[in-house]
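note to self — DONT lose this again. spent like an hour looking for the file last time. sequence + predicted structure for the chain T wanted, 296 res
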Amino acid sequence: MSRKNVSLIAKRFCQCAINFTGNITDIPTPGIASIDITSGPDGNLWFTEWGGNKIGEISPKTGIATEYNIPIGDSSPNGITTGPDGNIWFTEGHQLLAEGDVDSIGKISPKTGSVTEYNIPTNEAEPTGITAGPDGNLWFTEGLGNKIGKISPKTDTITEYDVSTANAYPMDITAGPDGNVWFTETDGNNIGKISPKTGVITEYILPTADAQPNGITTGPDGNLWFTELNGNKIGKIVPKTGDVTEYNLPSPNASPSSPFAITIGTDGNLWFTEVGYDIGKISPKTGKIIEYPVTN
């Protein structure tokens, strides 16, 4: 099982979704892992169903979930984001049953539910994260391909850029406040950035050895914030200088929480998930971390 598969299992949202009124709605297809989620231009939430080979949609008003089949079988959709063209874009990586790679970028129309797929030039690329860039393109990571890719929503053209560190396994990706696109290198132990204008990649090594950076997002303070799976820390990097600061989780390293995904909250804090099924938040002003146990 690849590192991506292990990570994705840890990132699952569980078998239900909750709407803004507090009502629980089951996802129609049983036995799938809901991996990533994004807000669509239609006001609904869109998510990938890893193992279900579908894209899901849920209405925050009604809590009703709808699913759309992906043409390529067993494609294991992973990352998902809203594109500048009004479509929803997602990555398709590892085939669960066939033990192969799909290596495609998909898009789905919120209006019609129709899905279009585009093959990535690199074989066994295993695309994971995807984000809308400041240049109007969709940028994505290729874990096994060890590349950063972009696809133009206007021409459907895919361009790839090699990551300097060998076997770095780029994982998550986000648009930075400085006009660059930033990403994590889980096996390379780096935070990387790529210039949409030049395609030049710069890497910043982390102070903690084998920290395994995973999730990344832009914080309200203008810095990039990321999780360290093996380091059991939350990190931040300053775009102008590349300076990295790390914050230890209260959970002891003897039983690490393995922080995974991270995003900015409506309260101005950074919220993150833990493989140990806790939810945590960190204040960008003070660096204080609070963890909340999740009970079944």
